[in-house]
Amino acid sequence: MSSTTHTRPSPPAPWRAAFESHMAAMPSPEFVFASLHPCPNDSQKPTPYLPRLRYCIHRGMWSQLPENKHNDAPANPRGVYDSDMPTFTTDVRMQKVGQLFATSAGKAGSEEQVQGSGGGGPCEAVYWIKEKGMQWRIKGTAFVVAPDIEGGEESSGVRTVKSEVGGRMRVVEGGEDKLGEWSWGRELTGHFGNCSPGMRGSWRNPPPGTRVEGEPDKEHQLAQKVTDLHDPIARSNFRVVVIKPDEVEATDLSDPETARRHRYTFVADARDGQGEWKEEELWP
């Protein structure tokens, strides 16, 4: 169903199990996501970019959609792909999406490009797990999965996502025979289905950040509830963002006498695109 670059079966990242257990310990897995905003050409700022931060909700690892008994969306088969790439959902009308395109290697900034899959701008994500006294910091690049990810002629953005994200998707041992059954589009719809009807309705809100001038049109109202998994307005605005980590830091502050920071750096093999994680123990 899709042309996906992927890696051979390999173990999860050495930080993965602890990270996921800490996400599960949080009442709500919130984190701060930072991207870069390009300064206007006539800006007097001393740097070409400014940081932009906001809270987001962790939505599991890409290709490992969290199970949800309330989600009626058709699911991809289990035991095909695995990855160490955290995800969150967003609205294409939010500034973060354009920022991930504008600061990518290709510096894609046109409205047409931003409406599709692509991106790849630098980012950081910071998670504070109060219940464990742990801070996680993930540095890397972030890619946007949009409705064009499957089903039509592949744009350069779609090819970028399938290459960059797909390159970190591992085939699960024994999953080779089911590769053709796994769909990018089905994974995207699964993420939409994992959101509550009220959250799905937020993608039918009036355009975020625009001036309030009278009543919005009937299609874009606050506090709507969407039950249709293929609602055309909500789905046109819905996006999944995939964080591709290059460096992960886990800082354990649970005990002042034994506090440590562990840094995990992904070292890619230029020969075949594979790689491994290098771990360092640091003072906090």
Provide a brief overview of the structure.
The protein has 284 residues and is of the alpha+beta class. It has helices at 16-25, 95-102, 111-114, 156-164, 184-193, 197-201, 232-237, and strands spanning 30-38, 49-57, 81-82, 87-91, 118-129, 134-145, 170-171, 238-252, 260-268, 275-282.
Characteristic terms for this protein:
284 residues; two-stranded antiparallel ribbon; alpha+beta; globular
Binned strand content: 25-35%
Mean pLDDT: 94
Which overall shape is indicated by the principal axes computed on the Cα atoms?
globular
Helix and strand sequence: HEEEEHHEEHEHHHEEE
Distance, first to last CA: 46 Å
Global structural class: alpha+beta
Radius of gyration: 19 Å
Residue ranges: pLDDT <50 for 5 or more in a row? none
Largest sheet: 8 strands, antiparallel
Total beta strand runs: 10
DSSP summary: helix tally: 7
Q: Which percent bin holds the helix content? A: 10-25%
General description of the model:
With 284 residues, the chain is α+β, with helices and mostly antiparallel strands. It contains 7 helices and 10 strands. It has helices at residues 16-25, 95-102, 111-114, 156-164, 184-193, 197-201, 232-237; strands spanning 30-38, 49-57, 81-82, 87-91, 118-129, 134-145, 170-171, 238-252, 260-268, 275-282. Strands 1, 2, 4, 5, 6, 8, 9 and 10 form an 8-stranded antiparallel sheet that branches. It is globular.
List the helices and strands and how they pair.
Layout lengths: L15 H10 L4 E9 L10 E9 L23 E2 L4 E5 L3 H8 L8 H4 L3 E12 L4 E12 L10 H9 L5 E2 L12 H10 L3 H5 L30 H6 E15 L7 E9 L6 E8 L2
Antiparallel strand pairs: 1-2, 1-5, 3-7, 4-8, 5-6, 6-8, 8-9, 9-10
